[in-house]
Amino acid sequence: MKKNKYNSTIKSPQKGLLITALLVAQFGFAQNKPDADYKGVIGKTLAESKEYWPEPVTAPKGAPNVVWIVLDDVGYGASSAFGGLIDTPVLESLANNGLRYTNFHTTAICAPTRSALLTGSNSHKVHVGGFSHTIMSAGFPGWDGRLPSKNGTIAEILRDKGYNTFGVGKYGITPDEDATDAGPFDRWPTGKGFDHFFGFLGSATDQYKPDLIEDQAHITPDGRHLSEQITDKAISYITKQQKAAPGKPFFLYYSPAAVHAPHQVAAKWSDAYKGKFDDGWDAYREKTLANQKKLGVIPANAELPERNSLIADWKKLTADQKKVYSKFMEVYAGYLTYTDYEIGRLVNYLKESNQLDNTVVFVLIGDNGASKEGTLQGAVNRQTYVAGETEEQVFQNNLNRIGEIGTPQTYANYPLGWAQATNTPFKSWKQDANSEGGTHNPLIVYYPKGIKEKGGIRNQYSHVIDILPTTLDVVGVKAPESIREIKQDTIQGYSFYNSLNDVKVVSSHKIQHYYIFGARSIYNDGWKAAAAHHPNSIEVKEALNDKTKANVLNADFDKDVWELYNINEDFNERKDLAKKYPEKLAELKKLFDEQAKKNNLYPLIDWSDVYQRKIHRTQATEGQSAVELLYKANK
Fold first, then answer.
1. CATH topology for the 65-509 domain
2. Of the N and C termini of the chain, which has fewer Cβ atoms inside 10 Å?
3. Range 420-437 average pLDDT
4. 600, 602, 608, 612: CA torsion to nearest 10
5. Domain of life, per the record (predicted)?
């Protein structure tokens, strides 16, 4: 070989070309190397290669179907399944053949509860501290209303484990700006793991003229009651799936708008309650408390909290007041009984198709406590806040339209007295995250194949974030490390699977914080510290009606008074121990701050912030007061 002037070997042209070709071939093959999970062999020819097909994903052998039923705005003392005076025979049957969980908790309002339920993590942690509605969300990690992809839903998890996934009814956690037919659709239900979805994206809708979608498009409702439509659709989805793949398990999220306002139902359902509430809300509370003791869903020595100071003594009302208020309750009761009937249609279908025995059903009787949003008089109009309108004017309007309550012509919601009654045995109500009345809801678990005891009572503390991990344990799958190649956060909930067949098992859920629009609390192994916060929606209405109360819109978090309760001994918060145990209170307040930081809860946002944001979006004119602007913005 020849040497060049640098004393290096000069290769022949032919040998150099051969080396180059080999290198190109080698690097070319490396660039086309399949992913690490590929277990076949790729040769130069088919004869030198070995094909590989990944095994299709299937659910564990014998895995049950899963049905989650989530009712809306139902207090602890409404359904007969937990001692209330409203007939719900289907829920009673599920409870009598399953388990009643008496110490289950929600977040105190709908969207945070649903985001926590679907992801198994706290609502601020998954960005839904308030709502996904533009006016009630804010540009902070805990408040922007957008579920992160790293917090996969139960539908995404089960879909990837071999389930078909269906949702019907209320979704409530799609950002407003995404909720058009132009999308984007990644935060619609079909973008969060549901194969099919039929229902509505918002927080509330008219029962006969719903803002209806199916999959990724708005559709025209057919005029029937929404609950009937969603039940038909749920049955249709399952029927088609089972015909195509008999025995394949499914997950169904059945979430009717009921019994959130508007309270609308066919007259035959409300007429069945004529005269049954004429003795009023005070009597309702006493009767319900007695029923609850007989069922064993509250302690035998339980006592009622005093009637809220905003609510009148029923005996002192006029005949006209009793007539109007009773009508509101008859409609609400008929609405709940009708909802129970529709649930029964679903249950009967599963039974007749031989699927019920291998189905686990979780029934959340309410996503928060009873609603206070009907205010003191009850409402027949969608717009409940009308500037300058007196309580007497509201009542006279309701009296004049009493025959329309419950019809498609009204947007009915019952008065505050019935909210307290249907929340028996607790004080306060929806939105009040400081109170058991806002957060303490009934839970039924029904699973013929997996629960030995029928009609059992479980008193272990649990929270809405616990439903997802419990479901995974029942199904027999682990939470995934990633979903569609997106690494997942750790699920925050605690499974209570072991309690299904062990009444004595100790709850693993020891610490839980709560926060809705300023009202806040912290639970720690039986102790609870809580702070009410003002304004709330009732006081906003008072501010609208009385300009001298406009300062209620500027509440100070530092002036909130913290209370302390031993929930193990005082489950419905009748004895404030803050002065007796100041060290314990300080300890829990510190714990709340730690949990708030950990879960993206800060900054604190309350109703005044929400409404002031509306005001800032309203064109102000000279001479208008803050309350007048608030009224204009709220329209």
1. Alkaline Phosphatase, subunit A (3.40.720)
2. N
3. 97
4. -80
5. Bacteria
